[in-house]
Amino acid sequence: MKLIGSPNSPYVRKVRIVMAEKKLDFQFVIEDVWAADAAVSADNPLGKVPRLLIEGHELPLHDSRVIVEYLDTLSPVGKLLPASGRERADVKTWEALADGLLDAGVLARLEATWAGRSESERSQAWIDRQMGKVQASLQAMSKTLGDKPFCCGTHLTLADIATGCALHWLDFRFPQVNWRDDHPNLAKLADKLALRASFSETKPG
């Protein structure tokens, strides 16, 4: 398997962590989707990463949620998704919330920093709206986590990987957002996850 993506993308990082936890072999090919000669659109018309190329399969997989769900079926090692039912839905809901936080954060960051837009064209109201979604997501995560050691109970799941990637990305791209003091239970989870080899070896920056 060949994973195409950026080392600083939290969505790509999620896939890399899942591969590490599942002990899957793959080749990581770095690609900048913002470069003029980026080839990502050749395999994904949306021009996004990650995408996973699989030998013998003509259609590459794209979207991190699709990729990690597929990867979890490849090995019984470190099962990250329950097979069915409410437990599976809970894990996927955590993942959707974490990815939604990232989606809003990325939109806010692009509005503030994208070189294709002048300062006069930037909308602070749009940035504030997206960051409001980030704050609301953090509050929901903190409330749902409570005092549990992991997002969905007593062991690591895809919910924790997605949440850890989102929280660490906030530290990386929005150090001015003081989410740790506001949500110490999330900070405790993020710090615990950072100690795992799969997280420490994929740290952005």
TrEMBL record:
<protein>
    <submittedName>
        <fullName>Glutathione S-transferase N-terminal domain-containing protein</fullName>
    </submittedName>
</protein>
<dbReference type="InterPro" id="IPR036282">
    <property type="entry name" value="Glutathione-S-Trfase_C_sf"/>
</dbReference>
<dbReference type="InterPro" id="IPR010987">
    <property type="entry name" value="Glutathione-S-Trfase_C-like"/>
</dbReference>
<dbReference type="InterPro" id="IPR004045">
    <property type="entry name" value="Glutathione_S-Trfase_N"/>
</dbReference>
<dbReference type="InterPro" id="IPR036249">
    <property type="entry name" value="Thioredoxin-like_sf"/>
</dbReference>
<dbReference type="InterPro" id="IPR040079">
    <property type="entry name" value="Glutathione_S-Trfase"/>
</dbReference>
<dbReference type="Pfam" id="PF13410">
    <property type="entry name" value="GST_C_2"/>
</dbReference>
<dbReference type="InterPro" id="IPR050983">
    <property type="entry name" value="GST_Omega/HSP26"/>
</dbReference>
<feature type="domain" description="GST N-terminal">
    <location>
        <begin position="1"/>
        <end position="79"/>
    </location>
</feature>
<dbReference type="Pfam" id="PF13417">
    <property type="entry name" value="GST_N_3"/>
</dbReference>
<feature type="domain" description="GST C-terminal">
    <location>
        <begin position="84"/>
        <end position="205"/>
    </location>
</feature>
